[in-house]
Records
---
Amino acid sequence: MTGDVEAQVADLKSRPGRDLQVHGSSALAQSLFSAGLVDELRLVVAPVVVGQGRRLFPDGASPLGLDLVNSRTTPQGLTIQVFETRGRPDFAVYEGVSSVG
């Protein structure tokens, strides 16, 4: 895609048809998140700490509320988490693990 990608994606989303998916492009995902064009986020987390690389959620990004709708772990230890977006999040104070219900 070239030109106004956000407008093109918004146009595609307004049409009937199959899901639109982004695989492996954090830059495109970041622009779609900031434009409010992401309905669902699927994260696959590997049990490895790399310590470097491009961030999916950069410093200064707008807060986004997510609702966990599915989560599973593969036999190899990958976690697959599916979230639906719900706009601006509600904020709370974290007081430690014992405060999480």
---
Amino acid sequence: MDEPVQEAVTAMEEHTGVVKGYRRAHPRGLVFHATFTPAPEARALTTAEHFQGSPVHALVRLSNAAGSPHAPDRASDREGKVLGLAVRFDLASGGHATWAAANIPAFVARTPKEFIQLTRAQQPNGKPNPLRMLGYLLTHLHVLTGIKGIVGLKPTPSFAHCQFNGVHAYHLVDAQGQRRAFRYRWVPAAGATTLSKEEARQRPQQYLLDEVQERVSRERVTWNLVFQLANPGDATHDATRPWPEDRQKVPAGQLVLDRLYEEQRESEPLVFDPTGVVPGLELSDDPLLQFRSKVYRESHQRRSHETKPEPKPTDMRQ
């Protein structure tokens, strides 16, 4: 295993409130059965199997991104938290494709080294160390978009009202072999909305997973997949730099949650690797893609040798 990967996972254990037996990031979550139906526009851009017309079964994991499974779903009555939406597409050929997105516009590190530095700028409880964080920001001004995106998050009433962004660039490959750089986003069909300070104050510390579980039992919870296509010269190696919003956007499909996955503990070995692409999709030159993949695998390796404690009473449905 690469030394930076070991450093990164150890830093997460020491600085983000990790609990043994849980994922090192996004430890509290729920997995749902879902159906993904590709849009006709996507088929013209890629030969990837799950974009060729027929609906495919998928597993979707919605999660709180904090290091601790006991972390609240909002930082305060005014500030929300980073949340995740990860998907495993089950392909007719027997394989899988996996993606992982978050409700932030950009990432907060450009390289593995920066990620380790940022992680070490936190206290053992996962809160920023003011002096270390200031030092990181002053020497890495390019991460300000990502930091502002996190600080600017507002409490949400539901996962169903959050937009999730892939942040990394990929390449679409069509039947003629033409490659197009793109980023993707999951846009909530219910609309992106937030809670007022007064509304947030009425919610418990952890409410989002219970809310979406109840919501799925009574209505369709849907996100529309959108590809944002790059213009020539748009950087594909830097997850801290979103592309301008005037870039072409193409509808690519729809994701609908069907029902809760039967045995949540059986879903724990699942790794929603952002590099899990299939022919018709290619990774970009973003160095964090392969790094994240290795960090996820190391996290899985470590937690698989640990005893996962029983959830606290407030987490019984997670």
---
Amino acid sequence: MTAQQAIAPPCAPPGSPGSPGDATPTSGVIHVNSRHTYGFTVIGNHLAQHDELSLLAIGLAVHIQSLPEGAKIGVKVLAARFPESEMRIAAGLRELEAAGYLRRIRVRLRDGRVRTRTESHNRPHATAPAPPVPDEAPRTTAPPPTPPYEHPRAAAPPPPPGKPRTEPKPSAAPAPRPLPQPRTLAFHQAAALLLADLRRHAPVLTLSEADVAALAPGVATWLERDAHPDAIRRALTTDLPAPLAHPARLLRHRITALLPPPLPAPAALPTVIPLQNCDGCNRAFRAPEPGACRDCRTP
């Protein structure tokens, strides 16, 4: 008998791609996964499949997330580790910072120096959606919400609990000082004439009769304190602001603020002993009454 010849190809081994009942695609990537038990880093698909980040930025994020705490991730350190230039690495870091995967905070040390601290976020709030919850798995406790990615200076501190925030009240304007009043009415008419005459020296100081009557007691106090009318006129008309909207209000302020103090009482004149002529020697000497000088009175 002759040997049997194989004229048909052997059957595909069970479980090969394309066999009946197999869900493995016939084209594209085929994952051959092995379970990691040590030395691995969990990377979310929101980073690995990011729609806006460049491939360099995604690779930098994966590398940074795999580093231990305290590792240096400066531009020069990463440029020495990878073949990319410092400019490209700096651009990739800016992409990660804009997307929320990196956060740079300026902190002040105990000795007063300021340092920049870099935080690596494996799941930014803006790009990482919450995982779906299966229908058959009841949700017992709500997970804590992921804090939004904010700059440390952008968020305002909340008010303390139990104390409502109150707006500061505007401080009230100080009350104007009262107009000085004279002790007598002797100078009232002269003060009114001086006020009415101010418009000849400064036309902007044209006052009404009511303003003259209201300001006259203050000017009378100046006159009562022996202030000369020319000195009062100069004090009220010199260096006027322009424009002057309220002349009576300005004069009231100057009359009150520039009021001179009362003159001190005149000092008592010293007692002068008059000169007398001696009855004996006719020599002049000082004595309260006429008589003999000291030499003539002495035996």
